[in-house]
Design goal:
- There is one protein chain.
- By secondary structure, the protein is mainly alpha-helical.
- The chain has one domain.
- About 70% of the residues lie in helices and about 0% in strands.
- The protein contains 16 helices and four strands.
- The chain is globular.
Length: about 375
């Protein structure tokens, strides 16, 4: 009984730390306008790579931090949710396409939606609800059955798992942790160097804060869950577990599935049922609160509604597609795009590729509607 009490205390400590980090994420994202969809849109519509350099810096920073902590023995890459032996490549690609297309219709990805909810954007509040419904269906409803019996057939079983660093280590006879660190320096360091090569990027405090700040909070969450939250033996199961997570495995930020869990917590809890709050719900609430507080502080909080029927319809459809696509792909632009990529997971890179292709399709639709005058 004493061991169980200690575990509960540790879990609460982990969730408090995760909530604080999530608030910092919300503050940085609100202050800097961090947005993956905006980065893709800038490249496609204007040929500007500045915001994409911000995203590259965030991904590179997260990659370096994850690899360094793994090499030092603080966290265990094999325990992350991204190191599964099943490579769901088709689900990652198709889900990424749906998510990317949806985030353009919804005027931003999942993390941008949370930030805008905190800013008083009522359109994003509707997107939040629709995203949650889509994710809920993909996790436990009709869309779940469709996902299981279609795209999940495109799955490869890999003994070495999904981490590219493990493949390289196996092929070259390296230690996996050393291989991970070398690859992170080459890939992640290369992304940061590419970003800093631009005078416009490196002279902007806002861009530097967005890139290095978001990347750092991703790393901080890996440490909180992977080091602080690691329990060698759960008092009930006697198996290793990561306190505060619904999966019991090591993870960092991800938003699509957690939005569904947040809605479930709000509307489906029986009066006699114990309320269970895990990492996903904590991160959702933390990002929204962080954005809200900074919006008040910076006097940028402002109510905003829909511009018309078509605007409403596009945001509703976009939210649903993001929810279904994000769960199918195994994560959003943050869950797969930053947290997943930081582990050098092959599935995460496939999902990001799908998200980018889907976003281009959504941008082409926007251009077509604009030319029609709709």
């Amino acid at each position: 009984m004493e061991e169980l009490s200690e575990f509960v205390f540790l879990e609460n400590k982990v969730l408090v730390a995760a909530f604080a980090i999530s608030m910092i994420f919300g503050v940085i994202a609100q202050r800097t306008g961090f947005c993956t969809m905006g980065a893709i849109s800038d490249v496609y519509n204007m040929g500007s790579w500045t915001r994409m350099r911000v995203w590259g810096t965030a991904a590179g920073t997260a990659m370096l931090g994850f690899a360094l902590m793994s090499y030092l023995g603080w966290i265990r890459p094999a325990d992350s949710i991204y190191s599964s032996g099943q490579m769901v490549w088709l689900a990652a690609l198709v889900g990424g396409l749906l998510f990317g297309f949806g985030m353009v219709l919804a005027s931003g990805c999942a993390n941008k939606t949370l930030v805008r909810v905190g800013e008083g954007n009522l359109k994003s509040l509707v997107v939040f609800v629709m995203l949650g419904l889509g994710a809920y269906s993909a996790m436990w409803g009709l869309a779940s059955a469709l996902r299981v019996y279609t795209v999940e057939y495109g799955t490869l079983n890999l003994e070495s798992g999904n981490l590219i660093s493990a493949w390289v280590a196996s092929a070259l006879g390296f230690n996996p942790l050393s291989a991970g660190l070398i690859m992170a320096v080459l890939v992640g360091g290369g992304m940061i160097a590419w970003a800093l090569w631009s005078p416009k990027f490196r002279s902007s405090n806002k861009h530097l804060l967005a890139g290095f700040g978001i990347g750092t909070v991703i790393v901080a969450m890996w440490w909180v869950i992977g080091d602080m939250g690691y329990v060698a033996e759960h008092p009930d199961t006697l198996e290793s577990v990561y306190a505060g997570t619904a999966s019991g495995r090591m993870q960092s930020f991800s938003f699509t599935g957690p939005v569904a869990r947040t809605l479930h917590l709000l509307v489906a809890t029986d009066l006699g049922q114990e309320i269970v709050i895990k990492l996903g719900v904590v991160t959702i609430l933390g990002v929204i609160l962080g954005s809200f507080l900074h919006a008040l502080y910076s006097r940028t909080f402002e109510w905003e509604g829909f511009g018309g029927t078509q605007d409403t319809a596009l945001h509703i459809v976009g939210g649903l597609l993001m929810g279904i696509g994000g769960v199918t792909a195994g994560g959003c632009t943050v869950g797969q795009g930053l947290s997943g990529v930081s582990t050098l997971s092959a599935v995460s890179f496939i999902a990001v590729f799908g998200i980018m292709l889907g976003a281009v399709g959504g941008l082409r639709l926007q251009m077509w509607l604009l030319m029609r005058g709709d």
